Amino acid sequence: MQVEISQTSTGLTVATEPVPGVRSVAVGCWIDTGSRDERPGEAGAAHFLEHLLFKGTEELSARYISETFDAIGAQSNAFTSKEYTCFWARMLDSELATGMDLLAEMLQRPAFRPDEIDSERNVVIEEINMNEDDPSDVAGEAFMRTLFEGHPLGLPVLGTRESIGGMTPEDLRGYWRRRYGARTALVAVAGNVEHGDVVEMVERRFGAWEAEDATHDLAALRVGPRASVVERDTEQVHLVFGGESIHRTDEGRIADGVMHHILGGGMSSRLFQKIREERGLAYAVHSFGMRFAETGGWGVYVGTTPANAHTVMEILVEEIERMASEGVTAAELDRAKGHMRGALALSMEDTNARMIRLGRNQLFGLPHLPLDERLARVEAITRTDIAETAARNLAGPRVVGAVGPLPAGEFERYLS
Questions:
Q1: What pLDDT score does 207 carry?
Q2: C-beta separation of 250 from 294 below 8 A
């Protein structure tokens, strides 16, 4: 692993990781902006813009962009989060210049044609409709809204039907002009490449590109014991139960990842074994951690019948408190380390996965570590580390987001 970092003459960061022995290359154009950076009246603008940039530029039609990506055998897409947006493509190494041409045009010269905005507006609204038909997605959104109440991280990435329906070309162009530019952008490339060639390629294609605003509204999170329930006549109650946790550069992030694998990260995890295998109370159950610039969160998702909801919640509380008070066994720790070692090694075989890790680490200011050092850091985690992490990160207050035929008051007893 030989990560190299450079900046173009306009300040745009270029990060590369050569991967010997492959013929593919993955390129990601990362923009340091997401839903947390939206102003009043812009709810969903970051995600809407992600869609819209594929609709064509001043010179290129949407059809030309899609046909050219297809013609070079590329996979291409984009994703938006609360903190960043990424436009990516994976292709043969010989086609990198063509892929870079398309991405550079899309990002710098979007057309913002009103008819294309209106057609894509309908697509985004259908995506919102699709998510609202999925009770697990609705429960997750209710949890995020409740955990981050009053905080920029509480804004939904997709926006709402009302905000998307009312967004004008001027709104979208204003967000793009403010947030997209050399100071907020990063080009990450992994695969069969030479760093100098990539820097030269980016320098030629991205020119003088400036964003007006590269700041973020960082704010302290004040979590109170709260429950948000969307009452629906569903067969299951979909629950997300959790609270505040560590930020993305916290030194305890590796131990936190190991802890979550033991708690609810796999088929051998405590929650999977207790809730599904031993009691048959759910089909799906898992725990997770989320890390952002200044704060983070943890949660457990489970779907169960209304009659079993309280039994499941009691088990969740019991297992979480047991993890925080007693820690883990040596066998549990060994299994979790083995899983993480395997996952880390397998991820090194995919150029797109390497590009995503490279881009995120660079964007977040995290170190670019070779595989052996990453494995060593996992191996160094002790039972004491897990006990301390659990006691710190799983502490209350707690919140619930849920969907089902139960009122919010049903869950208040579990939140202290």
A1: 78
A2: no
